[in-house]
Amino acid sequence: MEQLHRQYGERAEFLTVYIKEAHPLDEWRMDENDKQNVCYPQPKSMVSRVTIANDFVVRFHYGLPLAIDGMDNHVEELYSGWPERLYVIGTDGRILYKGEPGPMGYRPEEVAAWLAKRFPESAPVSTPAAAAAAKS
After folding, report:
1. How far apart are CA 51 and CA 39, in angstroms?
2. Shortest CA distance to 86 belongs to which of 29, 12, 27, 33?
3. Where are the alpha helices (DSSP H) in 9-45?
4. Residue 3 is inside which H or E element, if any?
5. Do the Cβ atoms of 39 and 87 come closer than 8 Å?
6. pTM
7. Residues 8-18: tens digit of each pLDDT
8. Please, are residues 45 and 71 in contact by the beta-carbon 8 Å criterion?
9. Which end of the chain has fewer CB atoms surrounding its CB within 10 Å, N or C?
10. Which of 70, 97, 74 is nearest to 86 (CA)?
11. Could you say which DSSP state residue 133 is in?
């Protein structure tokens, strides 16, 4: 996803939403979490959730914009994002692409194909950030 963000970030907005822990220590733990030393209990407060999300950003040098779902898990419930899922949402709020749930259905290459079709290399820049940059 970071490669897609580098390639299309001036023409499409990207946002990652950190939702509840998929494999917390106190629920459904996985060996892979131990291997990567990313073992957390399910956050019980927004402070804990923000702390874990910040650790993720720092630990994995994550460069995409990141929002954090509230403790009511509203975004996760709306988009069925658990444990991970890719969406493309139009400027009108309609879902244009909905990937299958991850990890098996996590297919960034499908989003790459969608973006390549929608934003060919010669396409004009169309994000608010790109428009502001073009004016300066």
Report:
1. 13
2. 12
3. 31-36
4. helix 2-8
5. no
6. 0.72
7. 888 888 999 98
8. yes
9. C
10. 97
11. H
